Amino acid sequence: MITVGMLSTYPPTQCGIATFNAALVRHLNGDGARSSAAVVRVGGDTPSEPEAPEVVAELPGGDPAAAAAAAAALNRFDVALVQHEYGIYDGPDGDEVLDVLNRVRVPIIVVLHTVLARPTAGQHSVLSRICRLCDGIVVLSQTAASRLLEVYGVDSRKVTVIPHGAETDEWQAPGLLPVTGRHDGERYHPLLLTWGLIGPGKGIEWVIDALAEVQDLPTTPRYLVAGETHPKVLQHYGEAYRDSLRERAAARGVAHLVEFDAEYRSRQDLAALAASADAVVLPYESTEQVASGVLIEAVAARRPIIASRFPHAAELLADGAGLLVPHRDARALGVAIRRLLTEPGLAESMERRSAQIAPTLDWAAVTDRYRLLATGLAAHHAPLTEQHGSVAHGRLRAGRRTPVGSTVEP
């Protein structure tokens, strides 16, 4: 059995990486004969009692001594698996994580959720050093893998592309057959859905503007924005962004078509909500986003998708699972909404293509790939060769081999 120590944010922290890591832990622990996983939780102002039995230690921000304790906890496992996003670690560009990695003696796999095409000098330095310290590097899209090679000069033999997972059984469970649209008396209103933590950059304003472009349709679509405001946005700005969206909808004359629902939903409730949508709209403004959990879940739900051309969407939807539009372009969004709701067979063809993709995204299949990678690295692990008595001068291994399952296109 392979044991895996995970360094990551983790529930009750609300962020996409915490949700991602919780799902991976759940599935690694779901087959006790082959693997087990526990968590060193990132975040929190001070150490506290673990929120769940799988949380074995914490890395609170701003505590210099915590890095050594976190590394000591990870060293009790066969492999350390580190979730990386600049914003979850303390220090300039999140360089706190380097203090931990320099002390880890077991093989390290890092999962990169952000790989910037145009990083600052600090971001480039931190990510390059992380990649040098790690034995295996996982990215969630081929776009991210290409950037690692081209922008950061990473050895392709260390890189493996493993997609973001989805609970495909949950999204297609019995009783969750699509019940699309909304009815107002005798009139049918198709339902457009955006969900996830809400904050600036989600591009919701462009969908609101697009609704004004399609009010002439015989069946006017309604737009539901489901999700709480991102905790960091709420902490600094309150509900100013959501309030600005309400004001925008009123100014565009579409307030009656836009609904905001900040209710927290379980995975099962979210699956039922997705099943009720005629289309999922992902109008994200970022041109850098190489991984989106909501995009993966929308494909797993077999719903038609309209998305801005952020890198992960451009890669995953290129073969017909959705429509791609330019960033910040309400008119193009309006055209795409009109096409989806009026063009015969278009929505059905998107659903068929998503159904072909979805099995490769299932968390069970994704977890198997992580387990295979971790097992291969542990099996080929050689003792550290230390320079000057400290691994801080470089993690050099005798007889390093290409990670098992390395899958990067040249």
In summary, what is this structure?
It is built from 15 helices and 17 strands. The protein has helices at residues 16-28, 66-74, 96-101, 121-133, 142-151, 168-171, 204-211, 231-237, 240-251, 267-275, 293-300, 311-316, 330-342, 346-357, 363-379, and strands at residues 2-8, 35-42, 55-59, 79-84, 108-112, 136-139, 159-161, 182-184, 187-189, 191-195, 222-226, 258-261, 279-282, 305-308, 322-325, 384-385, 396-397.
Structure description:
With 410 residues, the protein is of the alpha/beta class. It contains 15 helices and 17 strands. Strands 3-2-1-4-5-6-7 form a seven-stranded parallel beta sheet, with helices on both faces. The longest helix is centred in the last third of the chain and has 17 residues, at 363-379. The model is unreliable at 173-180 and 384-405 (pLDDT under 50).
What labels describe this entry?
410 residues; alpha/beta; 6-stranded parallel β-sheet; 36% helix; globular
Distance between the termini: 33 Å
The geometry reads as globular
Question: Strands across the major sheet, in which order?
Answer: 3-2-1-4-5-6-7
Round the mean pLDDT to the nearest integer and report it. Answer: 87
Please state the oligomeric state of the protein chains shown.
single chain
Helix and strand content put the structural class at alpha/beta
- Major beta-sheet overview: 7 strands, parallel
> Using only CA atoms, what is the Rg?
22 Å
Our count of helices gives 15
The proportion of residues forming helix, as a percent range, comes to: 25-40%
User: How many beta-strand segments?
Assistant: 17
Strand fraction band? 15-25%
